[in-house]
Amino acid sequence: MSTSALDVTWDADSHGHTVVSVTGDVTVGNARQFKRQLQWLLLAQPPVLLLRLNNARFVGQFGVECLAAAQRCAGRLGVDMRVAAPASGAGRVLHLTDPADPLLS
């Protein structure tokens, strides 16, 4: 099975928040890598971890599960994790999962 293209980059903003940009597809083939990257970023315990999914073309079931696991980890670590500007496809998947989830507010 080949992995789909996924690029995850991050930087700190002027407030010390970690801003993570996801580009490409989050699929079964690269979900484990995505999950490890999110966990690694959370271990630094930034006050806010902001995920920008506006360039994510596709976030499949395993990508949503990674986001949910990262949200649980963030809660245990006291990190405020947010998803900003999801692409329309990614946003639909996330809202179908649980439109009232605080991750999406």
TrEMBL record:
Q: Cite the SUPFAM superfamilies for this sequence.
A: SpoIIaa-like
Specify the protein name: Anti-anti-sigma factor
Q: Which residues form a coiled coil?
A: none
Tell me the organism: Actinopolymorpha cephalotaxi
STAS domain residues? 16-105
**Origin superkingdom:** Bacteria
